[in-house]
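Issue 218. Parser rejects a valid record. Input:
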Amino acid sequence: MQSSETVRRIEELRRIIKENNEAYYVYDSPKITDFEYDELFRELKRLEKENPELITPESPTQNLGDKTLEGFKEITHKYRLYSLDNSNNFDDLRKWYERVKKEYPKENDLELVVELKIDGLSCALSYEKGKLKLGATRGNGIIGENITENIKTIKSIPQELSKPIDIEVRGEVYMPVSSFERLNEDNIENGIKEFANPRNAAAGSLRQLNPEVTGKRDLHFFAYTAITPNSKEFDTHKQALDLLSELGFTVNENHKKAQGIEEVIEFCKKWETERFNLDYATDGMVIKINDIAKQNELGYTSRAPKWATAFKFPPEEVWTKLKDIELSVGKTGAVTPVAILEPVQLAGTIVKRASLHNFDEINRLGINVGNEVLIKKAAEIIPKVIRKRDYEDLGEYKAPDECPICHTKLVKPEGEVILYCPNSLNCPAQIKGKIEYWASKEAMDIDGIGGSIVDKLWTNNLVEDFADLYKLTIDDFMKLDLIKEKSADNLYNAIQNSKNPSMTKFLTALSIKLIGKETADLIANEFPTLNDIKNAKVEDLIKIDGIGEKAALSITEFFDDENNKRILKKLEEYGVTPRGSVVERISNIFEGKTFVITGTLSKPRNIFEERIKQLGGKTSSSVSKKTSYVLAGENPGSKFDKATQLGVIILSEEDFIRLSEGNINEQKF
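Output the parser choked on:
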């Protein structure tokens, strides 16, 4: 008979695991590390194994039990998506292999395939006769979310395969580390909440209710398995991976066919360190029996396949001393604290600095200079302070009152956690930050103009703001230390070649608070010229789907500021003229009409958008009562449903062509 303490612990573990399942799978906001979660799950499995009479169908060990997020249409998977059992040491991996091998005693070594375990969001893609019909999240493995429109924005997912077959493809949507870091840098600068890791960033981006936002995030896809219901296309898992590559999918190249578990273990050991050189997050390896017939014979438990398992890399967390808290001032005046650490080896590199995010986070952690702190790499990438020694209390860290660079009194806008230096006109850190950002790849993309060159230009009094880059001569660059004639010539030409940017890049480069690349693109699509944007009022801007009141106010305040007007005037005088999205109007047939486009059409969407604008109409990303028409292609999704509910006229591609040519009357609808 089990003790009341055992019953209580089992119930507590189930509650904690279910809460964290929901936080991880539904809201993409994990509360504990994968390692901590796995330890809890292993404890629950052990207790249930010792007390089988306490196992219930609702236990997390029996199913995933995850809900779907409100806002997406639920779908029932045709083929269930299972979870994976896992181990975090090689002895457990060997035990899994021995259990499987008992089923095949006559074979010396089973053929296995070992692959990197990508830390992203699992998806199932259904194709009929080679054409994408449905994209869905895993959800609880039985019921997922229909995210087809968002899936179509990911360039590495083919909408039509190289062979006209019926197939379901499983894979992982992920965000590259470099893209994740840029996204978080933008979020920090603009006072927006950061993503905890690339997995959260990918999940949050993929599950946007507006597919245009998803399309502007740098998402990628690795395919890792396939199901072909109507024909036998492969006999082994390795053949399935080869078929996926042939069909047009990206398959992670870092996989290996292995004979026996020891060969797998050597491959795992190799990637324990080499993974840190990748531009995507991986938290382990997946090991599968290669033979599909054996997979079918071995079958599944209630939640996981018996023929596959995962090996999780051990987390690297180390204690070190917090030597100082350095204050960094960004281009928008955001003051960010950075931990300066006693150098320590962590995840293959020497770490001297770590993120502290903001001053509220410092107080939450209760840390101060002199504390011993535990650090880890968030998603094995960015060093982060987790906690201090429980017994150490060095008092509360006092947030600064003034800017560490220009000594202006700091401000904290209502509803934000970031402290700002309001002295944008004279704070050297902000001015240099704006110049460096203006030249960065995501902005004007001026090759060669980085932090070091900006510092030299500033120190030599050659620039006062980013507009001054365009007055520089080759001789000016020759005045800088270690700059030779060829380099000076290259820098000068790179600047001159940036004078005619797209409106999106130009707006992004201006470093307007709360306006990153995605928001800039929304504005550029709605207002074709810089004068249109300058003259836009808050009420005009908030009509754009995706632009909130705070962002709209930030834009109008920027263009009303006298210093910004002065810089914009200088840019104009130096010949910097952004390319607007002006489309030459050839007719007024669509005057006053607003179109929303959804689904897959015979040509790229931008061709239809340009045609609408040529005929005097406007396009929008969301359906409302103000929408005149919805142009619907194949698999139109939720926009089609909303248009139907609101009674908005829905056009097929053929209807649209006839309407645009004046060959059909609006009254027909």
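Fixed in the parser; the record now loads. The CA atoms of residues 467 and 572 lie 9 Å apart.
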